[in-house]
Amino acid sequence: MANTSDIRNGLCIKYNNDIYKIIEFLHVKPGKGPAFVRTKLKSVTTGKVIDNTFSAGHKIDDVRVETHKFQYLYNDGEFYHFMNEADYTQIRLLESALDRADLMKEGEIVTIQINTEDNMPLSVDMPATVILEVTHTEPGVKGNTATNATKPATVETGAIVNVPLFINEGDKIKIETDKGTYKERIKE
């Protein structure tokens, strides 16, 4: 058993007969009244995100997890297949267990949290940024650079990301996985 002072991003807890992963939290100490923790919880079974507030000192039932490095192999339409880097065992997960499946290319190394009680995968954590090649984008309009103008670009995984006007097809770009936003162009 843990309490609200143990809450952190990525912590898996049992709540309402389901297992949730904390994706956001904020400790609040108002001038009047008791302190509390405002959280965003994501169900690891359905992918649904809910808001919840825990009062300070509230007991929470945390789930013991182990993290392992896995390599993304392929997607067969319904399942995403991964291979454990340590013992080469393979697992498959539904797309609902993944946060940004559209930014994952074959060979990508991800961290998978596994419940130690039943050895079931709980969630997949992507690296903070990924480098992908732009496969299609319209040419930028010359003279339209007074503001931070962007245009949509399709990357090699099929995801669409808004990029600055100077990005062309064939450029490699760094993308932040948590927001799915353009970060910078990679010079080769």
How would you characterize this protein structure?
With 188 residues, the chain is an all-beta fold. It has three domains: 2-62, SH3 type barrels, CATH 2.30.30.30; 65-125, OB fold (Dihydrolipoamide Acetyltransferase, E2P); 129-186, Beta Barrel (OB fold (Dihydrolipoamide Acetyltransferase, E2P)). The protein is 0% helix and 54% strand. The protein contains no helices and 16 strands. It has strands at 2-3, 12-15, 18-28, 36-43, 49-55, 59-62, 65-75, 79-84, 90-94, 109-115, 121-125, 129-137, 150-155, 160-164, 172-176, 181-186. The strands form three sheets. A six-stranded antiparallel beta sheet has the order 1-6-2-3-4-5, with no helix packed on it. A five-stranded antiparallel beta sheet has the order 9-8-7-10-11, with no helix packed on it. The chain starts with a strand and ends with a strand.
What profile does the largest beta sheet have? 6 strands, antiparallel
Total count of domains? 3
CATH topology of the largest domain: SH3 type barrels
Number of helices: 0
- What is the terminal-to-terminal distance? 50 Å
Order of helices and strands: EEEEEEEEEEEEEEEE
CATH class categorisation of the largest domain? Mainly Beta
Quaternary structure: single chain
Strand proportion: over 45%
User: What order do the strands of the largest sheet run in, or round the barrel if closed?
Assistant: 1-6-2-3-4-5
Structural class of the helix and strand makeup? mainly beta
Instruction: Based on the coordinates given, report the CATH architecture of the largest domain.
Output: Roll
**Average pLDDT across residues?**
85
Strand elements, count: 16
GO molecular function: translation elongation factor activity
Pfam family, one: EFP
Family: Belongs to the elongation factor P family.
Subcellular location: Cytoplasm
